[in-house]
Structure formats: structure tokens, C-alpha cells
Design a protein that fits this description.
Blueprint: E1 2-4, E2 9-13, E3 16-19, H1 20-42, H2 47-72, H3 74-78, H4 95-113, H5 117-142, E4 156-158, H6 175-193, H7 202-218, E5 226-228, E6 231-232, H8 233-260
Parallel strand pairs: 1-4
Antiparallel strand pairs: 2-3, 5-6
């Protein structure tokens, strides 16, 4: 069992608070972007083009992440104080919202510039999943996405009043740690597969399938509100993603197999 005593706020000047959450999210974006640029160079894609696209994707991802979080917590949090919608520095970004927001932005950009969307998706996939892994470190410090209360053998408890857990001193299932392990494992798989002669889009679909599957089961340990069909928001999106990704992957595998024969 682990007790987290770290204050989520690094320092304050008047009404301004510098939080670990903000710094770690910035680090996650920076590392993810570095990996994307590395892949773009390997694929002989324009560095300026990818840099411009990345800026728009970061913006789209942040908007999507906040919107999905607000939708999920509207009745219990934001309907009571709508001004908190804009206080993104306090925490509260839905990973699926970031993925969907970034995906929509990338699709529009590729359509307008007449670029190969599948190839771009493969270029971004390793950087995105590594960014997700690093970003979850912020959740460990903030305590905003821990799981259900637990009596052991592994849990996180918080003592600082700035932590966003339901109750201080109670041990909760360490779902952010499980997601870090999941995301880091997916990154290793993608990093090894990226140099193989896979069809365009296959690497992204592998990322989407593995993350959806892992997130679906990890979220059973969470306290997220039921959204629809007995599932929470993250689980429902995971199921939809699997329904979309798996058939495309199977089709690609069959086409590759037929070409070899």
C-alpha cells in the first residue's frame, strides 16, 4: 500500500497555482511530439507539416478531453458551478476525449491537405500512447482518477487536502498505475512493429485495439458513473472502438495473406 503525501500544487502566487498536473501534461505532450517527429523523419514526411498538424491536434485533443470529462461529470460537478469547466489546470481530462478530438482534427487536416490519413495515424500512434503513459503520472499525484476503495494488497491513499480523492486516508485501487503499465506495454509493442512492412493504418488499429481492450477491463475497477447499457463512458467508447478496429485489422491480415500466396 502506498500513501501519497505530495501536494498537487507546487507553489501559489495570489490566485495563481502551479500544479504538478499541468507540468506533467506538458511533459507528456513534449515527449509524445518528439516521438512523432522522430517517426515523421523516418517516414520522410515534412517536418514543418507535422509540426503544424501537431499543434492543431494538441488543441483538438485538449478540447475533446475536457468536453468528454465535462459531459461525464455534468450532473455531479459542473452543473453546480459551470465556471469550473474552464479550470482545466485543476485536472479532469478524459483520455478518450483527447483521442477522439485529436483523431477528428487529424482527419480534417488530412482531408484538406489531401494527405494519406492512414500513414499519418501510424506516425502518431507510438507518440500518442507514450504521452498517455506519462500523462497518467499526473493522475497519481492529483488523485482524480483512482479506482474503488480497497483493503489490499495494493492501493493508493492521500493525505494532502488538495488531492481530488473522495476521502483522505482511504486506500483506492491504483488504476492510474495500471494504465501506465498498459500504455507502456503498448508503446513497446508498437515501437517494435513500426519497422515491419505493415499496411498503412495497421499500427494505429493495433494501438486502438490493445488500448480499448485494456481500458475496458481496467475501468471495471473505477468509480465512474454508469453512462449507458450498464457501462461507464470509457467502457462504452472502448467497445465501439473494438467493434470498428478489429474488422479492419482482420481484413488487412486477410489481404496480406492473400498477397503472399
Amino acid at each position: 500500500m502506498i500513501t501519497v503525501t505530495l501536494n498537487p500544487i507546487i507553489f501559489s502566487i495570489g490566485h495563481f497555482h502551479l500544479r504538478w498536473y499541468s507540468l506533467i501534461i506538458m511533459l507528456a505532450i513534449s515527449v509524445g511530439l518528439w516521438l512523432v517527429m522522430h517517426e515523421a523523419k523516418r517516414k520522410s514526411l515534412s517536418q514543418d507539416l507535422i509540426s503544424d498538424l501537431s499543434g492543431w491536434m494538441i488543441l483538438g485533443g485538449l478540447i475533446g478531453a475536457r468536453m468528454l470529462h465535462v459531459i461525464d461529470h455534468w450532473t455531479d460537478v459542473f452543473s453546480k458551478d459551470p465556471s469550473r469547466i474552464f479550470k482545466i489546470w485543476e485536472g479532469g481530462l478524459a483520455i478518450w476525449g483527447a483521442i477522439l478530438g485529436g483523431l477528428i482534427t487529424l482527419s480534417i487536416f488530412a482531408w484538406r491537405k489531401k494527405l494519406n490519413l492512414s500513414r499519418l495515424l501510424d506516425t502518431f500512434a507510438p507518440g500518442v500512447i507514450m504521452g498517455q503513459a506519462i500523462g497518467r503520472i499526473a493522475c497519481i499525484i492529483t488523485g482524480d482518477s483512482v479506482g474503488k476503495p480497497t483493503t489490499g494488497p495494493f492501493g493508493l491513499a492521500y493525505t494532502n487536502p488538495e488531492a481530488m480523492v473522495p476521502q483522505l486516508g482511504v486506500y483506492y485501487l491504483p488504476t492510474p498505475i495500471y494504465e501506465i503499465l498498459l500504455n507502456a506495454s503498448i508503446f513497446i509493442i508498437l515501437w517494435r512493429l513500426r519497422k515491419l512492412r505493415l499496411p498503412d493504418g495497421a499500427l494505429f488499429l493495433i494501438y486502438l485495439s490493445l488500448y480499448s481492450l485494456g481500458r475496458f477491463f481496467i475501468t471495471f475497477m473505477s468509480t465512474y458513473r454508469e453512462f449507458a447499457f450498464g457501462l461507464n463512458q470509457a467502457q462504452l467508447i472502448s467497445v465501439i472502438s473494438l467493434i470498428i478496429a478489429i474488422p479492419f485489422l482482420l481484413r488487412m491480415a486477410m489481404e496480406q495473406s492473400s498477397k503472399k500466396t
